[in-house]
Every structure is written in C-alpha cells, then in structure tokens.
Write a structure and sequence with these properties.
158 residues
C-alpha cells in the first residue's frame, strides 16, 4: 500500500490552524504544549536531513496526544459556555483526532530520513550523518592554505 505524499509543511499548517482555533477555548498549557511541538516541526522542516529534528517532532506529537486528551477532558465542561468556545473546543478535538494520522505520516518521514525506531537511543549520541568531520577523527584535515592547481601562484604563509 502506497502512502500519499504529504508535505511536512502541510501537516504543520493544519495543526497550527487547528491549535490557534483551539486556543479560543483552551489557553495556557494547551497552547504552550502544542505551539512548542509545532516549533519542533519548523525545525524538522528547516533541517531536511536531520534525524534528530524529525524524531523530536514525532515524540512531541505523541506526547501531545496524551496531553490533549487530559486537558480537553478536564477543561471541556468549563470551556463550552458559548458558541465561540464550543467552536474552539471542536477544533481542539479535531486536532486531537488528526494527530494519530499525522504521527503515522511523520513516522514514515522519519524512516525516509534514515531513522530506525528500534536502534534509536534518545539519551545517547546523535545519529546525524553529515559531511562535517568530527574533532576526534583519525583522518588528517585538509590544508586550509592550499591553492587550487593550475593557478600558478604559491601559497603564502602569514
């Protein structure tokens, strides 16, 4: 079964919109938790190759599912006093209902970036695979004063 191609930006936009509307009825911890996780999603968009960014966004989405259930169940009777509050509560509930689907899609993006759920150690070192050379590498660094070949000039030391 092929998964639909869904851009991470679309997931962020939908949850941002629903969270903003949900803040009409629920403020405080609901807003802090959801907007913090959306900030992690922006980090995951900005660093397309980062396994850590997408894994933290996925973990945050999973955590907000539980937090939203608790927050909505505790404060819904207090929030549903007017039509505007009921609209905000409905949007928060819709956001909660869409989060498992978003988690599923983000998990597949995590796998595409090279993440492996079974071997990922959240408390250990990063799994980043980049072109940067680490300090404790055994390879000698490239000469920073090297002149490209064929230019006819010698490198001058300062």
């Amino acid at each position: 079964m092929e998964l639909p191609v869904v851009n991470l930006k679309v997931i962020l936009l939908v949850h941002w919109l629903l969270t903003t509307w949900g803040c009409i009825a629920f403020s405080g911890p609901y807003a802090w938790a959801n907007f913090t996780i959306l900030a992690l999603g922006v980090w995951a968009v900005a660093q397309r190759d980062s396994v850590d960014a997408i894994s933290m966004f996925l973990g945050g989405l999973l955590a907000t599912v539980l937090l939203d259930i608790i927050y909505i169940s505790v404060f819904y009777p207090l929030a549903a006093t007017s039509d505007t509050s009921r609209f905000g509560a409905g949007m928060a509930i819709l956001s909660l209902l869409l989060k498992p689907l978003s988690c599923f899609l983000v998990y597949h993006m995590y796998r595409e970036r090279g993440g492996d759920l079974l071997s990922h150690d959240f408390l250990g070192p990063s799994q980043e695979h980049s072109a940067y050379q680490t300090i404790d590498s055994s390879e000698p660094p490239a000469d920073p004063f090297a002149v490209p070949e064929g230019r006819g000039q010698a490198a001058r030391g300062y």
